[in-house]
Amino acid sequence: MMSIVEFGRKLRAGETSVAAMTDECLRRIERDNESLNAFILVMAEEARRQAREADEELAAGTDRGPLHGVPVSIKDLVDVRGTATTAASRVREGHRADRDAPIVANLRQAGAVIVGKTNLHEFAFGTTNEDSAFGPVRNPYDPMRSPGGSSGGSAVSLVAGMALGTVGTDTGGSVRIPAAACGTVGLKPSFGEISSEGVVPLSPTLDHVGPLASTVIDAWYLYRALLGRRAVRPLTAVPVGSLRLAVARRYFCDLLDDEVRARFDSGLEALRAAGARIDDIDIPHADLIPSVYLHIVLGDAAAYHAPMLETMPERYTPAVRSRLEIARYVLAEDYVRALAGREMLRREVDQALSGYDALVLPTLPIPAPPLGATSVRVGTKEEPVRSLMLRLTQLFNLTGQPAVSLPCGRTASGLPCGLQLVGTRMQTDGLVKVALAVEDVIGGEEPPLSSPRVEDNPIWGY
Amino acid sequence: MTVDAWLRAAIADAEERRLPELKPLLEGLALATGALRAGTLTHEAASAPLHHAQPATTGNAGSAAHPPDGPSR
Q: For residue B27, what is the nearest residue in chain A, using CA coordinates?
């Protein structure tokens, strides 16, 4: 997995071309997509045309900046002109976008080459990518495991070298969860920063658009492009010795897999050893997070899906249909209670951040779960996969602060773990500066995945 | 409407609509609704001044609150 920065250096040094990089991504898609199932649509012909144009522009002296000629993939929840936005659902059969979503137009303007549209949990309503009209996405680190979701195809496209950057959406963690499960960086900017026009909604109250990339600075370049702003010069890291971080252990560290806890504690120790100050703080009403989140996301999803549930319920995958059907029973009074709870939690997170550069917590309490698992063992108890996957990320969809997941080592069996940083609202650049410093300390000890472990697994392909 | 009354009505409606598979999901949602209501969440409470000292705790204080196995992602 080459970084965007490394590709840009080689491109401008004449050591590679956009056409060559695009061909390499398409070759990997052709080789591995049948088994990983990351892409719903591969746009090979258009990508090669864009690549030729990008090379010609550069040769003529026009350099669009850090994303010039960078092959990227787009979650198939986002409109790309001339293609269907399937949302991984048969409900969307016959759809064709007649124009680009603004974020796609912004990426094109920044010079990105779009290689295709990636698989997801149907309508982004899930965190495992098991329920998709196009079949499940598989984790390149272990094909019998979930890549996380709902932007699982996006994360896999990146990790498997099918794109150098990718765009996902995050309603309860759907950028950060697959980033953690697949060992990449996933950035959820502040709520409302990036346009969600032309993106199929799950919950307009909670939906965010965000990039995944192999490094923090790559993710920032993508974030700037999604905003429609060119990055004139790269951000620089906050000096790690001046970092003030806060850990909320109650609730957020109560329920962790032993290996995830060990990697997280090692990361904190490394940061302390590098001079960062790390204090314990508390989010007083953290126990209410799942209930507040649930009533808002269900209420919003029901409002959008009710017409389709009336006219074509059989087109949904069974699990997603059932969850949408129960959403229709949420009472207005409970939705309003949940909105009040969101305000309370927002103020508590704002206060927790007061005096600190960021909150730090694990991204996922468990490594990538096996496909099909409804529960996994944490300590001595079986815990439901669904609530575990969302447990540490959904709060910041409710409260709107920017959050980023970074790779934080691997388990003994090689599965990635993620560390999450949360910054002050509407200060995404500030969070990225912190993340750059943290990445310097905790990142880099593991080689990137160069190829899926096809040969390692005897039941690969089933 | 109490959570119990809501749950009974929702299950009856789901069965009438020939969707009996919703019952366990509705029961999970009822647990979450009970927790939400127990939190006495009102807009007045949400806008009241916070009284919690920050930083507040050290170490692994507190017990794990099991989140409801809700249906949402």
A: A326
pLDDT in tens, A43-83: 999 999 999 999 999 999 999 999 999 999 999 999 999 99
Q: What percent of chain A has pLDDT over 90?
A: 94
pLDDT means per 10 residues, chain A with 462 residues, are: 95 98 98 98 98 98 97 98 98 97 98 98 97 98 97 98 98 98 98 98 98 98 95 89 97 97 98 98 97 98 98 98 98 97 97 98 98 95 95 98 98 97 98 98 63 38 27
Cβ–Cβ contact A359 with B under 8 A: no
Q: Cα separation of A177 and A194, whole Å?
A: 19
Q: What angle do CA A95, A134, A105 make, to 5 degrees?
A: 45
Q: What span, in angstroms and rounded, lies between the C-alpha atoms of A163 and A70?
A: 8
Report A:102-121 residues touching B (Cβ under 8 A): 121
Find the largest Cα–Cα distance for chain A.
Answer: 64
What would the pLDDT profile of A392-440 be if each residue is shown by its tens digit? 999 999 999 999 999 999 999 999 999 999 999 999 999 999 999 999 9
Task: Give just the sign of the alpha carbon dihedral A384, A387, A390, A392.
Answer: negative
φ/ψ of A347, rounded to 5, equals -70, -35
Nearest to A114, CA basis, from A224, A225, A195 = A225
Helix A318-327 to helix B3-16 angle (10° resolution) is 130
Q: Minimal Cα–Cα distance from A418 to chain B, Å?
A: 19
How far apart, in Å, are the Cα atoms of A415 and each of A143, A181, A382, A409? Answer: 11, 7, 20, 8
What is the C-alpha separation between A21 and A2, in angstroms, rounded? 10
Contact B71 A354 (CB under 8 A): no
Question: How far from A327 is each of A57, A92, A296, A302, B10, CA to CA, in Å?
Answer: 50, 20, 10, 5, 11
Residues 11-70 of B with CB under 8 A from A: 13-14, 19, 21-22, 25-26, 29, 32-33, 35-37, 39, 41-43, 45-47, 50, 52, 54-65, 67-70
Which single residue is written with the structure tokens 């309508």? A123
pTM assigned to the model: 0.92
Cα nearest neighbour of B72 on chain A: A294
Neighbours of A325 (CB within 10 A): 23
For residues A103 and A209, is the Cβ–Cβ distance under 8 A? yes
* R_g (Cα) of chain A, nearest Å: 21
**Active-site residues of A: which are they?**
75, 150, 174
Inter-chain residue contact B55 with A281, CB threshold 8 Å = yes
Burial of A454 (0-12, 13-18, 19+ CB in 10 A): middle
